[in-house]
Amino acid sequence: MVKNSVKKFSLINTIEGYSYLILLFIAMPLKYVSGYPIAVKIAGMTHGVLFILFCLLLAKAWRESGWSFKESVIFFIASLIPFGTFYTKSKINAYA
Hints:
It contains four helices and no strands. By secondary structure, it is an all-alpha fold. Helix 1 packs antiparallel against helix 2, helix 2 runs antiparallel to helix 3 and helix 3 packs antiparallel against helix 4.
């Protein structure tokens, strides 16, 4: 059961990381350079839903895996930094 929670979290960690990069480096330039605000609405909503799922699965994986509070906070803070989720991916996969 623990490995299943960590694997789900690892998957959403990667997907959420890609959605953040798409929002920052594709949708935002489309909005501000090309004048397509719909790009940010779509990518932003998608990223928002994925981020909420990320937070829920982080809490579940933290509770079931026995990670320290510090590790969980690092995973959360890394999700706020572009490319941060890819840095933590190997650490998460070590628990899977």
